[in-house]
Each structure stands twice: as structure tokens, then as C-alpha cells.
Design goal:
The chain is of the alpha+beta class. The protein contains five helices and twelve strands. Bound molecules: biotin (BTN).
Length: 245
């Protein structure tokens, strides 16, 4: 993967609506990053909100989609692997497909990828990552499913250091691993693989099965009563049969 023109230009803000909104105010450059102390309208997957009080690490960056990362789900897979490598330096954690980082059964980090369309047809995509670092309070509806590094380790962590480690891992993965190696490394730390899962579709349907494979395009195969289905992250949220994981 060609990462030659990937820059680390990090623009820091106190409060933004969403780091995606702020990033879109700038001409795209491969690796240009917006990081904010807090977001007033942080967005999550499947139209959800992302609680973004100060304490967390919230950032979005552009990726030149000609760098062979053009498929959004695959960019999310790379980001999940980079986030897992980073956060496992602090706590024991794993990936919950498609791209949550989970520790002690609760979510520590979420990732969202988006396309960015520009007038001159420049082909850029954006990755947005939220890590619960020093967060101490979660909204009632998140209390059972969210955690933070501080909560797990009882100490505060340096967000700049985490951001730097993330980009070290991201660049290393992109420049040195093949697609197959990325999928293999992702599979090694993915709790969803070989687990029983309940697929909650956005239309309310729930389908149960066992996840039997992570595919090269970031989708999963799930063996159900009615046979094997291929599942795309854009349409479902995955739960364990008995709970969040
Ligand atoms: C998820 O639902 O798991 C994805 C959450 C992604 C949150 C991050 S925080 C930085 C970036 N800006 C946003 O508004 N969302 C992403």
C-alpha cells in the first residue's frame, strides 16, 4: 500500500460539532487530522450519537482513497487493527466486528468511516475514531456497555501519546502488510469470529448464527439456520447472544 504522501498534520481544537465537520472545512490531504477535546454532535455508526465529553480522544483524518484503501469497510478494518494494537499497550482488549475495541466486555473505542466528496472529484475518505481515555461519566443508556482506559486502569492517560501510537501503527500496517495479512491479524484478535452472534438489522429484524469468517472486503460470513449469509457492517449491529459482547 502506498503511504508515501501520508502526512501527519494534526489540527487541534477545544470543542467542535464533530471532527468530521471540522475536517471538511479543509482541502483534503492524505493524513490531515482534526482532533478535539470535545464534540457537541459526535456521530456514531448507524445514525447513533457518540458521547464526546472532554476526557476522550476524538479525531478524524483524510485518507487518499487511491492509496488502495478505496473500500470504506476495509479502511475501518485497518483502523480497528491499528486501534487494537495501540490500546492493547494499555489494557487487554479485542476487536468486536466491525470495528469496536472492547475491554472487560465493554466498548472502549468506536470507529466510523465516511466518504468525502469534493467538487474536483478528489477521491478521499475519512476515518473518525473516538477513544474513551479519561472519561469518567457515561450517560445512563451507555453505563452497561461503555468503559474507558481510566476506568480500567485507575490512572489518567496521555491522549497525544495515544494518537501518536495510533498513527505509528496505522502507517506500519498500511506500508508493510498485504490485505491477507491484515485480515489474518484482525481475525486473530476479533472476538466475533467463531462466536454466536445476534445480527440486529436497522429494520428491526434479528437473525442469529455463528460468525465463521472475516472476508477480505471487511464483511463477515454467518452460518444461520437457513444457511450461510454474508453480512455488511452498514446494515447491522452485532450483539452476543446473551449480551453486548
Ligand atoms: C461507533 O458508533 O462506534 C463509531 C463512533 C465514532 C466516533 C468518532 S469520535 C471522532 C469522530 N467524529 C465523530 O463525530 N465521530 C467519530
Amino acid at each position: 500500500m502506498n503511504m508515501e504522501n501520508f502526512i501527519r498534520k494534526i489540527l487541534k481544537y477545544q470543542s467542535v460539532t464533530s471532527t468530521f465537520d471540522k475536517l471538511l472545512e479543509f482541502e483534503p490531504e492524505n493524513g490531515l487530522t482534526v482532533v478535539a477535546e470535545s464534540q457537541t454532535n459526535g456521530v456514531g455508526r448507524l445514525g447513533r450519537q457518540w458521547q464526546s465529553d472532554s476526557g476522550g480522544l476524538y479525531f478524524s483524518f483524510y485518507v487518499d482513497s487511491r492509496a488502495a484503501l478505496d473500500k470504506l469497510p476495509f479502511l475501518a478494518i485497518i483502523c480497528a487493527l491499528a486501534a487494537h494494537r495501540t490500546l492493547s499497550k494499555y489494557v487487554s482488549c479485542y476487536i468486536k466486528w466491525p470495528n469496536d475495541i472492547v475491554s472487560e466486555g465493554k466498548k472502549l473505542c468506536g470507529i466510523l468511516t465516511k466518504t468525502a466528496i469534493f467538487k474536483n472529484n478528489a477521491s478521499y475518505v475519512m476515518a473518525g475514531i473516538g477513544v474513551n481515555v479519561n472519561n469518567t461519566e457515561f450517560a445512563d443508556e451507555l453505563k452497561d456497555t461503555a468503559t474507558s482506559l481510566k476506568h480500567i486502569t485507575d490512572i489518567e492517560h496521555n491522549k497525544d501519546e495515544i494518537l501518536e501510537k495510533f498513527f505509528n501503527e496505522f502507517e506500519s500496517i498500511c506500508s508493510s502488510l498485504s490485505t491477507e495479512q491484515i485480515i489474518n491479524q484482525y481475525s486473530d484478535v476479533c472476538i466475533t469470529l467463531n462466536s454466536s452472534v445476534a445480527l440486529h438489522y436497522t429494520d428491526g429484524t434479528v437473525v442469529e448464527g455463528v460468525c465463521t469468517g472475516i472476508c477480505g472486503d471487511g464483511t463477515i460470513d454467518v452460518e444461520t439456520e437457513k444457511g450461510k449469509i454474508n453480512v455488511n457492517s452498514g446494515e447491522v449491529s452485532v450483539r452476543g447472544i446473551y449480551g453486548y459482547v
